[in-house]
UniProtKB/TrEMBL annotation:
The keyword Cytoplasm does not apply. The lineage of its organism: unclassified sequences, metagenomes, ecological metagenomes. InterPro entries: HATPase_C_sf, Sensor_HK_TwoCompSys. Its EC number is 2.7.13.3. CDD domains: HATPase_UhpB-NarQ-NarX-like. The chain crosses the membrane at residues 12-31, 69-92, 99-117, 137-157. This is histidine kinase. GO terms for biological process: phosphorelay signal transduction system. Keywords: Kinase, Membrane, Transferase, Transmembrane, Transmembrane helix. SUPFAM superfamilies: ATPase domain of HSP90 chaperone/DNA topoisomerase II/histidine kinase (SSF55874). One of its GO terms (molecular function) is protein histidine kinase activity.
Length: 420
């Protein structure tokens, strides 16, 4: 709600002030009488201006409290609007105005309570609550303490709402941040892999250049001794130079986009947080594990994490909110099967039907296509290449009328990991 109030100009406070006036003012109209509408309207106006003109809101609160004193009003429901005004001012006003609002509202409320207790109207006495002087003093002290605490709590809630909105974020903000961090971690891990490959290529390149130098030095000596041998040596030197150039080209192509060192390599344990993030985004995400897990190295865990992450990203791009998404790990002996299933088609059809649209069912042709047609794509091909490093395979299938399933199978994963 606070973000809605923050991002819009007048409309949220108009709605809020009108609602408070109609409800609280209506209660006071029944319990106190028509004169209570004066204070109710002033308090509602204070709520209206609390977001954009907080100083005016503070002034209106004091005017409303003065009106309650002059009219001799008994404690009214509309005074609840004072706390709402203080809360909004604490959330959105500057530091000086925030403290002025808290102090003036407590002071004004204390004066109202004193007039209701000892003033010429003595409204509390008409309620049969106050009988003697001691009881009045006790009632005054308790009422002032409770009112001050009530307003201070409203002020603190306003500051807490501001901190949460600006620095912590809503659950949706946190979910989006989690997804962004997951993408960054995957990119950092990929760049670190590139650096490792670059190190290997650099070492090979040094060997190639060393071979070229050795052959050219031998060629220089052979020219003096035997010109025929020299031509063969120079030919070999040329071949070695070409091979070195090829390795240099591979190194350039690998590094031309730059590399980033550091970062945290994603692990399977991070999937639980990713599932929670998708729940905050509106998907019914679930993580299941069957069988006895075995130890995996960092590379294998990142491979599995990336397959699950990319599958979830594909669901987010193509399926509506409310879609059921399940990540299943099945550990069997030496192998592992990872499946990411969704019912995006079913959820979409159900949503369209609820809006009154006519939805055609699927037929034999779609059933046949789902059996014979292979689903391909750049992301899916990248998953297959990564899975192949661990003797695995990735397949994507479509269940007509239901959704899609991405299945990654690693029949010898444990053996492959132990051999690396």
């Amino acid at each position: 709600m606070f973000r809605w109030i923050h991002e819009n100009f007048w409309l949220p406070t108009i709605y809020l002030a009108s609602s408070l006036f109609l409800f609280l003012g209506g209660v006071d109209l029944v319990l106190i009488g028509p004169k209570s509408l004066v204070a109710s309207s002033i308090y509602a106006a204070a709520v209206l201006f609390a977001r954009r003109l907080p100083a005016l809101s503070v002034l209106l609160v004091l005017i409303g409290e003065a009106a309650a004193i002059l009219l001799g009003l008994t404690p009214s429901a509309s005074s609840f609007a004072i706390a709402i005004s203080v809360l909004l001012i604490a959330a959105f006003a500057n530091r000086q105005t925030r403290f002025w609002a808290l102090g003036s509202s407590i002071f004004g409320a204390s004066v109202v309570i004193w007039f209701l207790t000892f003033g010429p109207f003595a409204s509390f006495q008409s309620l049969g609550i106050l009988v003697n002087e001691n009881q009045r003093l006790i009632a005054l002290s308790v009422s002032v303490v409770l009112t001050a605490g009530w307003l201070a709590l409203s002020w603190l809630l306003g500051r807490l709402a501001f901190v949460r909105m600006e620095h912590v974020g809503s659950p949706l903000d946190q979910a989006l941040t989690m997804l962004s961090q997951a993408r960054i971690n995957l990119e950092l891990a990929r760049q670190n892999e590139r650096l490792e490959i670059a190190k290997d290529l650099s070492e090979l390149l040094i060997q190639r250049v060393g071979a070229v130098l050795s052959l050219t030095e031998g060629g220089s000596y052979a020219v003096k001794q035997n010109p025929e041998v020299a031509s063969r040596v120079l030919s070999r030197a040329s071949d070695a130079a070409k091979a070195a150039q090829l390795e240099l080209r591979r190194l350039f192509e690998l590094l031309h986009t730059g590399a980033v060192a550091g970062g945290v390599t994603p692990r399977l344990a991070d999937l639980e947080a990713l599932v929670i993030a998708y729940r905050e985004l509106g998907y019914n995400a679930e993580l299941r594990t069957e069988g006895e897990p075995f130890q995996l190295d960092e590379g294998a865990e990142m491979c599995l994490y990336k397959i699950a992450f990319e599958s979830l990203e594909n669901v987010r791009k193509h399926a509506i909110r409310g879609t059921n998404v399940t990540i299943e790990f099945t550990w069997v002996g030496e192998g592992l099967q990872l499946m990411v299933k969704d019912n995006g088609i079913e959820a979409s059809n159900r949503s369209r039907v609820s809006l009154g649209e006519l939805v055609d069912g699927y037929g034999l042709e779609e059933d046949f296509d789902s059996l014979v047609q292979q689903i391909d794509g750049a992301t899916l091909n990248a998953m297959r290449e990564r899975a192949a490093l661990y003797e695995g395979n990735v397949e994507a299938t479509k269940a007509p009328g239901v959704g899609f399933t991405v299945a990654a199978m690693f029949p010898n994963l444990k053996t492959v990991v132990e051999s690396k």
